[in-house]
Amino acid sequence: MTDNRTGWAPVRHFAERSVLGLAAVTAVGLAFGTLLLLVRFHWQPLLDLDRSVTDGLNRWASGSETIVAVLQQISSFGGRGTLIPLVALVVVMLLIRRRPRPALYLVVTGLGALILDPSLKALIGRLRPVVEVPVASAPGNSFPSGHSLGSMVVYGMIVLVFLPAMRRRWRPWFIGLAALIVAAVGFTRVALGVHFLSDVIGGWLLGVAWISVTAYAFRIWRREAGRPVPSLTDGLEPEAGPDLRPAPAEGAVLPHPWAKGAEILVGWVFVFGLLYLLGYSVNRWEPSFDDGVPRWLQTFRTPGLDHLSWLASKAGDTHAILIISLIFCPLALALWRQWRPVLFLALTMVGELTLFLCAAASVGRERPSVEQLDGQMPTSSFPSGHIAATMCLWAAIAIIVMARVRQPWRWIFPALAVIMPFIVALSRMYRGMHHPTDVLGATLLTAAWLTVLWFTVRPNAHAETASEAAEEAEEATHGRSPAVVG
Fold first, then answer.
1. Cα 143 to the chain's mean position, in Å?
2. Which of 175, 342, 360, 407 has its CA 20 to 30 A from that of 156?
3. Where are the transmembrane segments (predicted)?
């Protein structure tokens, strides 16, 4: 009799959880349906509340350009330009870690949200708010808020997927961070005057309902595949935890971190001294070819080349460098399961930025005496920040990849480390923004700073291929001592 009860226990627990889950989804769905009807039939108390909240927040936000800029930046975390690349990146990471089931869950749930948003907006046809001082605009109809729906779905399903990789004491903080992002995005949509409060609440309710439905379907899929059905507090696939942990087999990222930090700081000061010395010499020397090269390149200007040079210049600006870094670092962590290369790249870019800003402020060199297509810039000419950032980024990536990839295609990255800075440098001089010696300063910054980090961080001290990293992580997961690959 005991065995029979024990055998039926998983089924009973699954049924209980299913009923509770179904009740929760039904409650959220009813709340959304009720709100939809109130909006559709213009219930006056709701309209008054929406108008009051929207007008009050608009008066607050419109009083400061800084507040508007901050709100727009936060709002971008719920836009398609952020959410779609984020989901694509996470899907690739899951496939690298050989977890296709949660990857498929992300794709299906994300596509569903993309379809729900415009469909319901077209069905309801609610117009966006008209505020006294417009500070932002958005296309399409208003209900429900696409940013609120998208952020709830994307950050919610990322929590469900990566929850097993978190230690239990960190899980509430992880969930809280995701909830804070979702709440902040919803707040900004009302404060910017592009949505009513009910639009945001409707987006949240619809998002919760949708991820609940897809999570429930995923649990049914697991049961049909003969897998245990865990509580949602353990995530979608609890057994995926070891595969989703960033670097389970890695020891100390940097031994003696305080000593290493002091070495890096001393190296930074040394590199700054070299840059200042070169910048001071160039300012006193003022070689004739420095203005001659931008003037010569100016003779080739055409509307077509101007546009191409603008695109090439954009490849070295802050947004492009940041985007490439944010893509490479998670993929590197997924492939090689080591924090050290990620730390190396992060220190490379932080050091490059601070060295560039300090050197530019100290040297104070004027831009070339030609027409400058990019207008007035906030920093001086020496060294070139665009070129230094491009050199540092691609050189650091090449250093990391060459030690960990055995296939012939790895030579793409050293080639990019040469081609990309050349293209950016040529475009910056063509556009009249830099002298050749500014390029020399960027080259000195890159070579000296990467040398400092090479000897302090030693990014390839325990370099492994992706397969070696996976084997070592599996050994660590099963409690065996992993072999160190030098």
1. 27
2. 342
3. 20-43, 77-96, 103-124, 144-166, 173-194, 200-218, 264-282, 318-336, 343-364, 384-402, 409-427, 439-457
User: Which DSSP string do the residues of 194-214 spell out, in sequence order?
Assistant: SS-HHHHHHHHHHHHHHHHHH
My answer on whether 170 and 134 are in the same domain is yes
Task: Read off the pLDDT of residues 154-203 as tens digits, 9 standing for 90 and up.
Answer: 999 999 888 888 888 888 898 999 999 999 999 999 988 888 888 999 99
Rounded distance, CA 38 to CA 302, Å? 58
Tally of domains in the chain: 2
Provide the residue range defining the domain that includes 331. 257-475
User: How far from chain centre, in Å, is Cα 367?
Assistant: 33
Q: What is the pLDDT of residues 258-283, one digit of tens each?
A: 888 899 999 999 999 999 999 888 88
Does 59 lie in the same domain as 131?
A: yes
Domain stops at, among 244, 269, 296? 244
| Assessment of whether the complete model's pTM goes beyond 0.85 | no
Is 486 inside a domain boundary?
no
Separation of alpha carbons 404 and 406, rounded Å = 7
Distance, in Å, from the CA atom of 136 to the CA atom of 178, rounded to the nearest integer, reads: 25
Give me the amino acid identity at 180.
L
Q: Do you find a cis peptide bond into 287, omega within 30 degrees of 0?
A: no
Under a CB-based contact definition with an 8 Å cutoff, are residues 55 and 131 in contact?
yes
Q: At what angle do helices 197-224 and 44-61 cross, to 10 degrees?
A: 100
Are 441 and 305 contained in the same domain? Answer: yes
Nearby residues of 481 by Cβ (< 8 Å), 6 or more positions away: 475
Q: What is the CA radius of gyration of the chain?
A: 27
